[in-house]
Amino acid sequence: MKFLLSIVSTTFFYISFAQNATEIVKQADDKMRGETMQAELLVRTIRPAWKREMQCKTWMKGTSMAMILIKSPAKDKGIVFLKRKKEVWNWMPVLERTIKLPPSMMSQSWMGTDFTNDDLVKESSVVQDYIHTMIGDTIIQNRSCYIIKMIPKDEAAVVWGKVVMCIDKKDFLELHSRFYDEEGKLINIMNSFNIKQMDGRLIPTRFEMIPADKDGQKTEMIYKSVLYNKPIDDSFFTIERMKTLQ
Q1: Please, what is the average pLDDT of the chain?
Q2: Strands annotated E in 158-236
Q3: What sign has the CA pseudo-torsion 162, 126, 69, 55?
Q4: Predicted structure pTM score
Q5: How far apart are the first and last CA of the chain?
Q6: pLDDT tens, 97-122?
Q7: Which DSSP symbol is given to 32?
């Protein structure tokens, strides 16, 4: 009887731990997204011999809809990315052409940066597409953080073979993440900084993505302004609307 109770207790412990890890990831994801989110971004791509900056505007609604408009530099102005559920589209004004991005493109570089297409439009869901396990805790920027390992579910079409995420225990801020391929090789490291109140929410406002094997290379994403929970109609997220954004 004691042996049976021990098995039941151990099983309950691991189930509760997994549920807690998933809930922590969900709270961090919800904290950054809101029900809707509109933001002005500066994206700075840094290489050993050069730097490049882009000004962008984004609109997001839940986890299923997103729009990203490139506002500068001039040669990229007007390029738009649209996500509706699991479909991702790209409008190229110079070509006057709309391109549907296949799933294989989600792992590719977004606009020559160190972020992937999936990082920006978030086709995969950090909550729904992964199994979450608490593996420890750590201190980052004087904040106590959970360390959570994320392994993709068998049926999930995701970019990464494993993600290790460090989330602040108090405010549920994603402060550090490591991204691995299917062979377990470390590919990218993401750090978050400049924690500020933005439209009533405490969030990191500067993110840097660093390739693990490329010295002197990284991409910074800086939030200049954020507006949360302002209603956005579903009709905004259409191919037709992509072509008229300013």
Answers
A1: 89
A2: 162-168, 174-180, 186-198, 201-211, 218-228
A3: negative
A4: 0.85
A5: 69
A6: 999 988 778 888 899 999 988 887 76
A7: H
Assess if CATH 2.50.20.10 describes domain 2-242.
yes
Q: Tell me which residue has tokens 């072509």.
A: 243
Bridge partners for 112 per DSSP: none
Q: Is 215 helix (H, G, I), strand (E, B) or coil?
A: coil
Contact, 176 vs 193, CB < 8 A?
Answer: no
- Helical spans, DSSP H, in 88-201: 117-121
Burial of 10 (0-12, 13-18, 19+ CB in 10 A): exposed
Q: What is the pLDDT of residue 142?
A: 96
- Strand 80-84 relative to strand 87-92, pairing: antiparallel
Owner of token pair 């102005």: 77
Locate the domains of the chain by residue range: 2-242
The amino acid occupying position 151 is I
Q: Is residue 7 predicted with pLDDT exceeding 60?
A: no
Nearest Cα to Cα of residue 73 among 87, 92, 52, 89 = 52
